[in-house]
Write a structure and sequence with these properties.
This protein is mostly helical. It has two domains: about 120 residues, Farnesyl Diphosphate Synthase (Orthogonal Bundle), CATH 1.10.600; about 170 residues, Orthogonal Bundle (Farnesyl Diphosphate Synthase). Helix content is about 70%, strand content about 0%. It is built from 15 helices and two strands. It has a two-stranded parallel ribbon. Helix 14 runs antiparallel to helix 15. The longest helix is centred in the middle third of the chain and has 23 residues. The radius of gyration is 19 Å and the shape is globular. The two termini are about 25 Å apart.
């Protein structure tokens, strides 16, 4: 990517499009917003556009009113994405203008966006995963793809960074799955593989009502340990990212790890409430990432 290409996102003609994406990120994803604030321009604006795209895809599936044709809407969304990644703007909305500019500035791959959309399409109907390999595939679709897009924007110094970004994405998604167990179940989605539930001697209803605390805790502890393993497996990614963007990756990772440890301290909370990281703790995570700089 040339410096001239990167400055496309700062062009006067794109100001409204970038501002729209920034507001979507600020209002819909507090964790990501404050992490992305550590990113220098023009990568920061590019990441706002990427998040706004992901939010729109998610809303098509999760926010679709009863009786709507979400399947048709997501396929139209895919078609517009393909156009934007070719530098074209099929629908001249602020989102597509911003994404087309990002695609002109950074080496994005359509396969990553297609994977994300495939994961969304699978969620259009009730879903219960049976095997660990299915769970891994799901995480790769909706999160490893995001990790690869991020490092393509941030820049990296070793091709192995893409594989490590995939692992970091799996770690992030495992945290999401643990946190959202109750919410997902209400929508007919059970991402914890049945073979893992069977191994712990717990069924979904028993987990949601925490009927056998020792078995339920063992199940969640196992999921938490698996997420920690993915974080450790991808630990060398940080040093492969371009130094100016390392604080962003460290900040985002720090917030996810803080969330994971809060759930580890009291696993039963996940079936009663949406666990979150307190604002002060988030601020400290971001401050530490900023102070560490590009080391």
């Amino acid at each position: 990517m040339s410096a001239a290409a990167g400055t496309l996102l700062l062009h006067e003609d794109l100001r409204d499009a970038v501002q729209y994406c920034r507001e979507v990120t600020r209002t819909r994803a507090a964790n990501f917003y404050w992490g992305l604030r550590l990113t220098p321009e023009p990568q920061r604006s590019a990441m706002y556009a990427i998040y706004a795209w992901m939010r729109e895809a998610d809303d098509i599936v999760d926010g679709a009113p009863a009786g709507s044709d979400a399947a048709r809407s997501i396929q139209l969304f895919r078609a517009n994405t393909q156009l934007a990644l070719r530098g074209d703007v099929g629908e001249p909305t602020l989102l597509w203008r911003a994404l087309a500019a990002v695609a002109s500035a950074y080496p994005l791959e359509l396969s990553d966006f297609d994977a994300m959309i495939d994961g969304q399409i699978a969620d259009l109907r009730p879903r219960r995963l049976q095997r660990e390999v299915e769970f891994r595939r799901y995480c790769e679709q909706v999160a490893s793809s995001v990790g690869r897009v991020c490092v393509r924007v941030w820049g990296y110094q070793d091709e192995h960074a893409l594989a490590l970004a995939s692992e970091r994405g799996v770690a992030f998604q495992m945290v999401n799955v643990i946190r959202d167990i109750a919410e997902d179940a209400r929508m007919g989605r059970v991402y914890i593989p049945q073979e893992r539930l069977d191994g712990a001697g717990v069924d979904v209803d028993g987990l949601l009502h925490w009927r056998e605390p020792r078995r339920c805790r063992a199940l969640i502890d196992g999921m938490i340990a698996a997420a920690r393993d993915r974080f450790e497996a991808s630990a060398s990614l940080d040093a492969m990212i371009e130094p100016t963007c390392r604080p962003t990756l460290r900040g985002l990772t720090g917030m996810y790890r803080a969330l994971l440890e809060r759930m580890a301290a009291d696993p039963e909370r996940i079936v009663h409430e949406r666990v979150s990281v307190p604002r002060l703790q988030k601020a400290l995570v971001i401050l530490r990432a900023r102070l560490a700089g590009g080391r």
